[in-house]
Design a protein that fits this description.
Length: 102
């Protein structure tokens, strides 16, 4: 019976990981929809406008993509340069950089 539990352990870990990923993906879709609603209502700038303002300041870095936090009304843009990842947090209402971390 003990060997049965040992064999099932990797499947339990995989199932838990899959559920966590599904939750994160659902939250991401919700935040994207919220960003779209807020932009259409005129409450936040479009992602394209945010990128137009920030990307020139990150010359030499490769842009990996954005994420939107509906609660903070902020975009997090992800960059990589020389193997180091940098996150640039931008106020979606003003386009102002509020934090830069690496």
């Amino acid at each position: 019976m003990k060997w049965f539990a040992i064999l099932l352990a990797p499947f339990a870990v995989a199932l838990t990981s899959t559920a966590a990923m599904a939750t994160l993906e659902a939250q991401s879709r919700t935040d994207q929809g919220e960003a779209r609603k807020e932009m259409q209502a005129g409450n936040v700038l479009s992602l394209r406008e945010i990128e137009r303002r920030v990307l020139p300041q990150m010359r030499g870095s490769e842009y990996l993509g954005p994420a939107y936090d509906a609660t903070a009304r902020a975009y997090r843009l992800k960059f990589i340069k020389d193997g180091r990842v940098t996150y640039v947090d931008v106020d979606a209402r003003t386009g102002r950089i509020i934090n830069r971390s690496n």
